[in-house]
Amino acid sequence: MGSDSRKERLPSVLLGSKGHQVRYRNRPYERAKGFGVLLQSYTTMLVQKALWFERSLFVSTLLGLAGTAIASDILSVAFYAKEKNQLYDFISANGEIDYGCRPVVMAAEGEHKLHAVISEEHYDHFKRNLDPEVVRVETLHNLNKRQTATAPIGKGDRFKGGKVAPRGLGTRKPSEYAAIQSAGILNADEVYTAMKGLEKEYGMPLFTTPHKTFEGATVIGGVANKAEKLKKDKQYIYFISGIHARERGGPDNLIYFISDLLYANEHRKGLTYGNKTFSNKDVKTALGAGIVFLPMTNPDGVRHDQANSNLWRKNRNPASARPNEPLSVGVDLNRNFDFLWDFPKHFNSTVAPASTNASSQAFYGTAPFSEAESKNIASVYDQFPNIRWYIDVHSAAGTLLYSWGDDVDQSHDPKQNLNNPAYDGKRGIVEDSGYKEYIDQADWDKIRLQANRTTEAMSSVGGRDYVPQAAVGLYPTSGATDDYAFSRWHTNKNVNKVYGYTLEFGYPTNFYPTSEEYIQNIIDTNAGFMEFILTAVEIGLKD
C-alpha cells in the first residue's frame, strides 16, 4: 500500500496496531516495533494485491486526461466488530483505505461499524482472510450501479450570470422543492454566479481570497449580515464547504442557507426546515452575528469530479505526482493545515493520521499550507479577526465533530498539549492513558453544548439522526481545518479563540446523493446552521 517516509511498510493489510493482532482466518499477524510479522507463503500474493490496490483503486484516467465514471468494482462497505478496539486495530493495519473524510465508528445493534470505499478485489480478499468472529466486512452498495440514481449536475446557468438570485428551501413550501431538485446539484460555475446573484439582489458583500489555485481559479467568499456597511471586526461566524471535491452538495447547502436568511430578512419571514421552524426574529439574530462563508474552497477538484464522476477527493496540484500514478495528483486539503502537520514527528509511530504517500486519499502535502486552497481558508482569519465559531461542511457520516482530533480530550493536565514537544511520538493512541489532549473545562462545556444543540436541531427536522462526537472518534487525524481553527489561539494568544467543527451531512459513503437525499441534506444542514448560529449567540461571540 505504498511506503511511508518514516519506514518501509509491508502491505498494510497485514499490519496490526502495537500490542494487538489482526486475525486473518485464525492466522494472527502481529506488529513488532512497527513492522508486520508475516507468514512467508502469503508475502508475494499480498504485496501484489497491495500494489494493485494502490494503483487501481480507481480507474486509470484520474488525471482528467480522459474523463470516465466510477469503476464498476468500487464498493461501499462496512466493517463490523463487537469491540471498538478491534476496529481500531483494523484501521491501524489498513491506513490507506478510503474511510471518507476520516474514520468514523458508529453503534450498530450491539456492535460497531466502520464505513469505507474499497475495490471489489480488495473486498474479496477481506472476505477470504478476515476472521468474521473478530472483524467482518459487508457490502452496502456498488457505487457504480448506484451512480445511475444520483442527483445530476446542473446544466447551463440557472442564475444567468448573477442576474437571478438563488432562493433556498426554508422560505418555500415543500411543493416547491421539485424545482430545485430537478435542476440538480450546482455546477462549479453556478456556485460563482449564485454568489453574484446574492450580491446583486441583496447587496451582499463579496471578497476574493489571495491565492489562485493550480488551475488558476479564484476562490470567492461572501459576508451576510444586517449592517449597511461591512465591518470586518464584527463578523463572528465562519462556514466553508467543498474542500473535498467528491462530497457533492456542500456548496449548495451553504448557498441556499445564506439565500434563505437574506430572503427571509427582506420579506420579514421565518424559516421552516421539515419539523424545525425559526422566527423572523431568529433570522435577524443570525444575520446580526455576521456570517463569513466560502462555499467552494476546492474549485479545481470540484470541476474535475463533476466532469469525471470518479470520486475525486483532493485538489489538482500535481507537484508531488509520480509518472503513471494518477492517484498521486493532488493533496488532501483537510490534512494540510498547521495542526500537528508533521505527524511522523508528533504522533506514535503505530498510527497514521495522514499519509506521506502522494497516491493516498489522505496525502498531507509537502508542508503545512503548501496548497493555495488551505492558505485561502486560513487567510479569512486575518481578514475577519474576530471570528469565534467555525464549521467545515463535509459528507457523508451524519455527525458533528468537535476538537480535538489528535487524541482524547481531557481537562486535568494542561502539560499534555499540542505545543509540548515532550509528548512528541506519544499522541494518537486513543486506547492508552499516556497522552490525552488538554482542553479547558469551560471551553469543553461550550463546545459540547453547541454540538448537542446543533445535532438535536438537525435530527428534529425529521430526515435522520445526527450524532455529536469528538473528532478523534476511534482514530486520530492531523492537519484538519477544525483543529487548526481551535489550535490557533492555543499557539498564539494574540489571535482570537475559534471553536472549530466539522459537519458531516448525509449517509456514510453516499458522496453522490440521490435527488431525494440532496434535498434532505439541504434541509438537515440548514436547520443545523441556523441552530449553530443561535447557540453561538447565546453562548457568546466575544470574550
From TrEMBL:
Residues covered by the Peptidase M14 domain: 184-536
Pfam families linked to this entry: Peptidase_M14
InterPro entries: Peptidase_M14
Record has Zinc as a keyword: yes
Cofactor(s) needed: Zn(2+)
PROSITE patterns associated with the record: PEPTIDASE_M14
Example GO biological process: proteolysis
Family note: Belongs to the peptidase M14 family.
Protein name listed in UniProt: Zn-dependent exopeptidase
Species in which this protein is naturally found: Plenodomus tracheiphilus IPT5
